[in-house]
Write a sequence for this structure.
């Protein structure tokens, strides 16, 4: 029993950390063509994520791997039911990765503008798709004894779309704040002002999302039965408001930190509400995939717990070290002088 | 072709495409780290320029290796849900461990290496490329532990309607997996060695940067010679393990139909699977097959007819794949030996014909790697987990023909496009040669220390 709960928490943490880290890469990608007014500025934007985006994406691989190892039945059904959505996600992540790497390798405006479009798609599409997928997970899949009754079109239901829109806006604000911290001069100012402008629609969509979640999902059942848990959504709301407050004070790093916390707690709000389900059935709760009916054996969970408790802290330590090495903002001088830069 | 057939084709195609990039990464990461170590030790600028030149090619290749790897993990769930449900308890663990233990290291430190030239000390920067090299190979270990389990399932019981892990140590010390890992990494090193030999030869033929490319050539010759010998030696032990755990695969590899003691090996052989015999068997080395398969001249070699038709793999691709791989393997040993000889006698430039051949040989180790995987994966059929689960029982139940068609066509188009772009960039940067000016880097790093 206990190990399933440990893995449920780890599962939620892996996804939340993944969205916090890749979120600013998605956001930076979406904003690259709009914030960067010339080639050098556009290069600066992708070079701010250059040293870290690869390592950030591994949180997704690990979240996927952890789902496979700890909850194989959920892994199998979630991935096969969401077939076309995941296919699009894969394609957009592949395009995102190569566009960072390839953009700078040919010095031609046409080449670079093609990859700039790819960078936009590689930021927008995964953000939207992850949101739609998680919206549908919160809401539950139409599944029963006969299997799954959904489709790609079904996934694009209003609640799924609102969650998709929420993710896009969260990551846009997150990316703009990251840029405001990691760049200098005009780019920095533009990024901060874009973050402030995008914060308003984000707030609106977040309010709609909260209300809609109450109406369309059973996420709040857990909170009603255990009000102490409400701390997670409360922190989400407070940190969302704090972003605007820090922005007004020009405390950009604090605003970015608040945005990190917002993403962690928004995902956390959903995950806490799911417990003990991983994917609820929207038809009949007895067909929900729970941490109990879809988990690995106790033996496997113990082995995986030992591995996770040893190696995840090590990963976090060296990742912090790397973020410290690259903590300085990226300047024009950096991208012009460094031949290895993107 | 139905959902099953197209899913298999898609997995094969995406796996093969992924595996264009992986072997070079395995070997070139080590070679670049070795070059940078020599720069670190000697301060010789040539080694720095070598590191940067080969490092650039390494990165162009690395990019596609990483992004196409995610596809492999996702497909287990997307197309092979029944497989994932049935074996996820034991098969998911090595994949999750690979991400946590190896892939994180690789991906984080590749960023440090690319962007850290002037940000950290030379020693730490050198360490970052060695971590990348180590982590890449560690990744291969965990992936091959997973694949090794599909070949020779160990450490599990069938319980609760699935395969559940009961012995983690058996999983990670599976001899099949460890031999496969050994055989695979040195095969990757061979790809890298011939890649460096071929591109160096191209520049040497044009008298371009002679000193730098002679040094690269020599390092690649040493690396290649050692690796190609190890490919054969480990491959030999791997064969014995295949015979022990997968008799049907070995019988298909050598097109053996009838069980025989002290079996000979036919150098010239044309299989005739329709009639369960060989159409041509000639130039026979007596007892060789028994020696090869059991390291014992009188051992019994199992023939395919000992197994029901429904348990046999398709003979032709496995047989041809194996012959092709082994033939190429011997060619690589001879070629790298000759390259080594030339570079130690400092007579590389006096053999222009050989240099030309080396340029055209660049694709051959790639082909050998692909053939090896055809032997491994087609030879395992009709099983997805040998003796435990059939491939036909592993495909996702919810999958429709239109879904797989869309994904298959999508993969072919996207991967085709990316492959063309990647090869274009590799050729462009390989031809361009090393940058002359690394002085900007030198000045700044000296100030930094």
């Amino acid at each position: 029993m206990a190990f399933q709960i440990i893995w449920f928490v780890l599962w939620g943490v892996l996804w939340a950390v993944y969205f916090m880290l890749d979120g600013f890469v998605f956001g930076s990608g979406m904003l690259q063509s709009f914030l960067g007014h010339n080639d050098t500025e556009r290069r600066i934007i992708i070079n701010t994520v250059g040293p870290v985006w690869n390592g950030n994406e591994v949180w997704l691989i690990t979240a996927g791997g952890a789902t496979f190892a700890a909850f194989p039945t959920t892994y199998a059904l979630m991935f096969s039911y969401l077939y076309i959505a995941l296919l699009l996600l894969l394609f957009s992540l592949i395009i995102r990765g190569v566009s960072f790497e390839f953009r700078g390798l040919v010095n031609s405006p046409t080449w670079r503008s093609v990859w700039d479009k790819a960078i936009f798609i590689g930021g927008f599409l995964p953000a939207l798709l992850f949101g739609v997928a998680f919206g549908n997970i919160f809401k539950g899949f139409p599944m029963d004894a006969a299997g799954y009754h959904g489709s790609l079109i079904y996934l694009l239901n209003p609640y799924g779309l609102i969650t998709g829109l929420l993710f896009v806006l969260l990551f846009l604000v997150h990316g703009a704040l990251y840029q405001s911290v990691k760049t200098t001069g005009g780019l920095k100012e533009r990024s901060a002002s874009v973050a402030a402008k995008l914060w308003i629609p984000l707030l609106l969509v977040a309010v709609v999302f909260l209300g809609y979640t109450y109406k369309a999902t059973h996420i709040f059942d857990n909170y009603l039965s255990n009000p102490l848990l409400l701390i997670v959504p409360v922190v989400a709301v407070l940190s969302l408001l704090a972003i605007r407050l820090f922005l007004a004070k020009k405390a950009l790093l604090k605003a970015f930190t608040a945005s990190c916390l917002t993403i962690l707690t928004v995902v956390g709000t959903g995950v806490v509400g799911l417990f003990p389900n991983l994917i609820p059935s929207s038809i009949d709760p007895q067909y929900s995939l729970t941490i109990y009916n879809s988990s690995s054996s106790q033996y496997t969970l113990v082995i995986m717990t030992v591995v996770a408790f040893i190696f995840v802290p090590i990963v976090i330590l060296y990742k912090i070290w790397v973020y410290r090495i690259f903590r300085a903002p990226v300047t024009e001088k950096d991208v012009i002088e460094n031949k290895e830069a993107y | 072709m139905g959902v099953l057939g197209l899913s298999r084709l898609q997995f094969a195609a995406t796996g093969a495409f992924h595996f264009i990039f992986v072997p070079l990464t395995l070997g070139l990461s080590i070679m670049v780290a070795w070059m940078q170590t020599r720069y670190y030790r000697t301060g010789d600028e040539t080694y720095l320029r070598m590191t940067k030149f080969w490092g650039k090619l390494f990165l162009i290749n690395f990019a596609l290796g990483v992004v196409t790897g995610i596809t492999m993990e996702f497909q287990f769930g997307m197309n092979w849900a029944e497989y994932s449900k049935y074996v996820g308890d034991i098969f998911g663990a090595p994949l999750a461990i690979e991400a946590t233990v190896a892939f994180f290291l690789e991906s984080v430190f590749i960023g440090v290496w690319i962007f850290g030239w002037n940000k950290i000390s030379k020693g730490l920067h050198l360490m970052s490329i060695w971590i990348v090299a180590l982590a890449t190979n560690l990744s291969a270990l965990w992936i091959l532990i997973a694949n090794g389990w599909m070949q020779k399932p160990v450490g599990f019981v069938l319980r609760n309607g699935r395969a559940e892990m009961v012995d983690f140590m058996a999983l990670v010390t599976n001899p099949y997996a460890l031999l496969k890992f050994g055989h695979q990494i040195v095969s990757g090193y061979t790809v890298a060695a011939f890649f460096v030999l071929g591109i160096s030869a191209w520049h040497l033929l044009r008298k371009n940067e002679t000193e730098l490319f002679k040094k690269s050539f020599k390092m690649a010759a040493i690396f290649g010679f050692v690796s190609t010998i190890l490919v054969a030696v480990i491959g030999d032990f791997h064969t014995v393990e295949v015979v022990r755990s997968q008799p049907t695969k070995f019988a298909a590899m050598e097109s053996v139909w009838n069980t025989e003691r002290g079996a000979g090996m036919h150098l010239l052989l044309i299989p005739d699977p329709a009639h369960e015999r060989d159409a041509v068997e000639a130039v026979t080395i007596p007892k060789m097959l028994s020696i090869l398969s059991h390291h014992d001249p009188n051992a019994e070699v199992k023939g395919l007819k000992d197994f029901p038709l429904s348990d046999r793999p398709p003979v032709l691709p496995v047989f041809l794949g194996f012959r092709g791989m082994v033939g190429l393997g011997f060619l690589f040993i001879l070629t790298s030996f000759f390259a080594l000889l030339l570079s130690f006698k400092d007579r590389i430039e006096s053999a222009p014909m050989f240099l030309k051949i080396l340029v055209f040989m660049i694709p051959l180790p790639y082909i050998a790697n692909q053939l090896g995987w055809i032997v491994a994966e087609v030879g395992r059929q009709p099983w997805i987990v040998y003796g435990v689960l059939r491939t036909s029982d592993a495909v996702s139940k919810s999958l429709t023909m239109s879904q797989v068609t869309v994904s298959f066509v999508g993969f072919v188009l996207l991967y085709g496009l990316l492959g063309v772009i990647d090869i274009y960039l590799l050729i462009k940067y390989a031809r361009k040669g090393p940058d002359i000016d690394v002085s900007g880097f030198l000045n700044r790093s000296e100030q930094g220390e």
Observations:
- The first strand of chain B starts at residue 156 and ends at 159.
